[in-house]
Amino acid sequence: MALICIGSVCFSLLHVGVIILFIVNYFYAHLKKYLPNFLTRGEEERNKQIEASLQRREKNKDYAGSTYIELAEGDTLSGVLESTKNVSVVLKFGATWCKPCNKIKRFFKNQTITYAVTLVDVDVDIHETLRDEYNIKALPTFLFYVQIKNDWVLTERIEGSNEGDVEKAFQKYCVPKDS
């Protein structure tokens, strides 16, 4: 039986292998939330799941009315994500002093007219921990999330205030309302 000894303590290779598997599994479970493009079964599989989820919701009209939320001090994103009935959530990270953020705010807010979506406006000066957690380096930054099998999956990240890019993402990842 092969052993690995560290000082006066010895472990069998079997035990070391099991411990390594637990460690790898732990990190994989946490990393796949933040790196969906690299650690899932592939981009095509993910896109099929997203499209199927959106089509199912649109066909069954299984969505709530649109909501626009300015995340107040003390509020949490997890509370918003747990309470929403929509399949899509879009986060906009901005600041009151940011001119491009203020310019695109009306456009962002008006998406509730066209799409069944939950929009969350996050001020990075108030929510510094969220800014760091979501690695916000440019303002505004839009994060598009779609719910797949009770998990919120990041589908697109847009930095900057290009309305065309943001509109394309809304068309791709949000359920349109009935006309």
TrEMBL record:
The chain crosses the membrane at residues 6-28. The keyword Membrane applies. The keyword Transmembrane helix applies. Keywords: Membrane, Transmembrane, Transmembrane helix. Residues 85-162 form the Thioredoxin domain. InterPro entries: Thioredoxin-like_sf, Thioredoxin_domain, Thioredoxin_H-type-like. PANTHER family: THIOREDOXIN, THIOREDOXIN DOMAIN-CONTAINING PROTEIN. This is Thioredoxin domain-containing protein. It comes from Plasmodium coatneyi.
